[in-house]
Amino acid sequence: METDRPLDALNNARNKRVILELKNQKQFIGKLKAFDIHINAVLDDAEEYVDGQLRKKMGTVFVRGDTIIYIAVAD
User: Fold this and answer.
1) What pTM was estimated for this model as a whole?
2) In whole angstroms, what is the distance from residue 26 CA to residue 41 CA?
3) What single-letter DSSP state applies at residue 70?
4) Does residue 59 fall inside a structural domain?
5) Residue 1 domain-assigned?
6) Domain of residue 31, CATH code
7) Residue (of 28, 34, 37) closest to 71 by Cα position
8) How far apart are CA 3 and CA 7, in angstroms?
9) Which residue range forms the structural domain that includes residue 56?
10) Can you tell me the distance from the alpha carbon of 59 to that of 50, in angstroms, rounded to the nearest whole number?
11) I need a labelling partner for 28 at 20 to 30 A (CA). Which of 8, 41, 63, 66 fits?
12) Is the dihedral of CA 27, 68, 29, 9 positive or negative?
């Protein structure tokens, strides 16, 4: 798999569990289903974490790209 561009790396993470770290210190962990050029992201089976503690299970969520600090593959 080639990762010459940032969107290639995201494409390689599709359908894998990822961690989204947000500007408000929250994290969402879930399966990356979709994203666009603004890095708006859709996660399935998402869970919200605050201070490392599970806050709630969210199901499918849409996260605005301008709120994301980083995305990392969880597995």
Assistant:
1) 0.90
2) 15
3) E
4) yes
5) no
6) 2.30.30.100
7) 28
8) 8
9) 6-73
10) 17
11) 8
12) negative
Distance from C-alpha of 41 to C-alpha of 32, rounded to nearest angstrom: 7
Sign of CA dihedral 64, 37, 14, 3: negative
> For the segment 27-37, what is each residue's pLDDT rounded down to a tens digit?
999 999 999 99
- State the Cα angle at 58 between 34 and 18, rounded to 5°: 45
Structure tokens at 52: 């490392």
**CA 67, CA 12: separation in Å to the nearest integer?**
21
Q: How many Å is the Cα radius of gyration of the chain?
A: 12
Number of domains in the chain: 1
